Backbone:
């Protein structure tokens, strides 16, 4: 029929079958699942031990020292906040543009956002050293007559992350309500209780559906504005300082692009794992991965554009203090990391995802792992070379290497992400069941 | 206290539901007396069963309240507990702008969520939702749509005929007391 949109095969399956397939992974605990959760738990325990060492002996156990006061913790913070852009931002864009292929992807992506934010939000607290005093950031009347400095980007971060976490949790929760109401119908007693409480007595009336759809549309618009602002503010943590190679007007958009880039890579990996482990090959098709790969390729090119723009202006300006950092990044101490970053962030995705014959789920996952490594390196290259080469010649050229404490805590956060995701996927359907059915409006196009 | 009869009718497709709503409206049933139950959202053509909403306005008002309130709070805090600024203004709109923006967005998020809970009747029943809080709720199996009609004074003849004409698979009547 001319002009008719062809819907993908899984969407043509009977609704009962879709429901059964997508609810099945929630029941039953296999040996594989226990092992998958146990191993990361051990890594988390070791990370917790490392943090306890830091709490007992102070920040001296880290590799941080004058003038490199920011190291792995800030890199981790920026990295995880970047990953968080996988979900809410991508989901909101696809929702607003009504992209049909988004349906099996959005919830998995939104869950990444919430967990990545929870993990990322820990790092400023870990970095405080005296973590138990983090509440000093909260503005409340106190006997110290001391209020936070609202001009400080640190407080901007706190406000932005609070707004983003709140929005992301609600954005994840809202479309879960109808699914939880369905799950409450036939389940084990404790699950029934949990889903019943969380679904707030959802009946499926048109009043409820209308309210939900309106709220989701509004939330998608709002969360988009918040997500962009959050990573811009993270960029301003650096750009507001008059430090060489940091004080740049494009840092905001540069960070946003980087965040979406790494977020998409994270999403690609998670989707591939879910597909394999939960047997969802029928629902997460090559078509979805192909679309994600194209988006990833676009972001790779955009990332290169911003990286070039950032570096070429510094090079042409030839400011002595900037050139020292520029040289350290591209020619001397950090050159290997810099060019490795360019290789895995641009060359690898360009070849694997750009050449149609090579583009597949496997190559997409390989490119995504490379991108995650590259984006971690990017943040390291932004943070460390500048602090190692400050404007004070006497303090310059100090080296920084992360200690075992920082590495253990970093590894624990990756393990934390795995555990949180595994728990989530056992409690809630990873694909929104009610959204999966094609809406009639779409069919009639 | 008038007696109320609820007609619960089952449909298998959306087109029949649209026909049923049109027939019921022609039979004098008000939109407030009609409810649909389904496992997925039903996108009805404009004018069939519109449910006007103030959600956008509430989001804007919530955003404005949080933005203005947050900025006022920062202004108060910075003037009451002054930090040393080296001659720069104690309160700066540029510096506070980020806080204002984020709180504005937080206000929009919270008010949208709050209004969703209110509008859907999930947490707080209001208006016709409060009136009908004891009405029978059908358990909707997949791919079925239920239409619930509220008939005051047991007047069910015309609505029943309208439902039958539109192709209802089954029609069930339940009686209760109205408010």
Residues:
């Amino acid at each position: 029929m001319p002009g008719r949109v062809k819907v993908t095969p899984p969407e043509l399956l009977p609704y009962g079958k879709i429901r059964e397939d997508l609810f099945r992974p929630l029941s039953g605990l296999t040996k594989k699942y226990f092992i998958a959760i146990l191993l990361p738990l051990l890594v988390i325990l070791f990370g917790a031990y490392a943090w306890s060492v830091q709490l007992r002996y102070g920040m001296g156990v880290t590799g941080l020292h004058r003038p490199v006061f920011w190291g792995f913790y800030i890199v981790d913070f920026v990295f995880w906040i970047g990953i968080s852009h996988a979900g809410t931002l991508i989901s909101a864009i696809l929702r607003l543009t009504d992209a049909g292929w988004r349906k099996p992807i959005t919830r998995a992506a939104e869950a990444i956002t919430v967990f990545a934010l929870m993990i990322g939000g820990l790092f400023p607290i870990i970095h405080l050293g005296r973590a138990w005093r983090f509440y000093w950031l909260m503005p409340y009347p106190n006997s110290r007559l001391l209020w936070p400095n609202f001009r400080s980007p640190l407080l901007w971060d706190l406000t932005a992350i609070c707004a983003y976490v709140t929005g992301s949790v609600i954005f994840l929760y809202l479309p879960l309500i109808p699914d939880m109401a369905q799950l409450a119908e036939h389940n084990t007693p404790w699950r029934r209780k949990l889903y019943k409480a969380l679904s707030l007595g959802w009946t499926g009336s048109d009043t409820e559906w209308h309210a939900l759809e309106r709220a989701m549309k509004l939330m998608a618009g709002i969360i988009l504005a918040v997500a962009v602002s959050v990573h811009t503010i993270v960029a301003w943590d650096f750009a507001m300082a008059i430090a060489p190679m940091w004080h740049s007007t494009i840092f905001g958009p540069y960070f946003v692009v980087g965040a979406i880039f790494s977020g998409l890579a994270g999403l690609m990996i998670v989707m591939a794992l879910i597909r394999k482990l939960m047997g969802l090959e029928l629902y997460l098709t090559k078509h979805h991965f192909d679309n994600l790969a194209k988006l990833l390729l676009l972001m790779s090119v955009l990332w290169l554009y911003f990286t070039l723009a950032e570096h070429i202006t510094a090079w042409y300006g030839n400011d002595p203090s900037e050139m020292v950092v520029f040289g350290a990044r591209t020619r001397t101490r950090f050159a290997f990391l810099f060019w490795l970053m360019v290789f895995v962030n641009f060359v690898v995705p360009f070849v694997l995802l750009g050449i149609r014959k090579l583009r597949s789920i496997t190559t997409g996952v390989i490119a995504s792992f490379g991108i995650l490594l590259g984006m971690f390196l990017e943040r390291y290259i932004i943070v460390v070379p500048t602090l190692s080469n400050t404007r004070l010649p006497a303090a310059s050229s100090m080296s920084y290497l992360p200690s075992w404490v920082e590495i253990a805590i970093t590894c624990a956060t990756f393990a934390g992400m795995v555990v949180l995701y595994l728990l989530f996927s056992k409690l809630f359907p990873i694909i929104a069941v009610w959204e999966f059915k094609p809406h009639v409006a779409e069919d009639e196009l | 206290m008038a007696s109320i009869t609820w007609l619960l009718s089952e449909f298998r497709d959306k087109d029949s539901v649209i026909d049923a709503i049109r027939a019921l409206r022609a039979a004098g049933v008000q939109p407030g007396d009609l409810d649909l139950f389904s496992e997925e959202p039903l996108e009805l053509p404009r004018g069939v069963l519109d449910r006007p909403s103030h959600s956008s306005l509430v989001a804007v008002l919530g955003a404005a309240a949080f933005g203005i309130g947050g900025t006022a709070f920062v202004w108060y805090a910075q003037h009451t507990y002054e930090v040393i600024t080296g001659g720069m203004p104690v309160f700066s709109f540029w510096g506070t702008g980020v806080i204002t923006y984020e709180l504005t967005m937080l206000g929009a998020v919270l008010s949208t969520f709050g209004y969703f809970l209110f509008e859907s009747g999930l947490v707080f029943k209001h208006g016709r939702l409060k009136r009908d809080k004891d009405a029978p709720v059908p358990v909707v199996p997949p791919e079925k749509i239920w239409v619930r009609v509220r008939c005051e004074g047991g007047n069910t003849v015309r609505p029943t005929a309208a439902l039958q004409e539109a192709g209802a698979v089954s029609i069930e009547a339940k009686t209760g007391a109205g408010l």
About this structure: Chain A touches chain B through 55 residues (CB under 8 Å). Confidence is low (pLDDT under 50) at residues 1-5, 438-445 of chain A. The two ends of chain A are 11 Å apart (CA to CA).
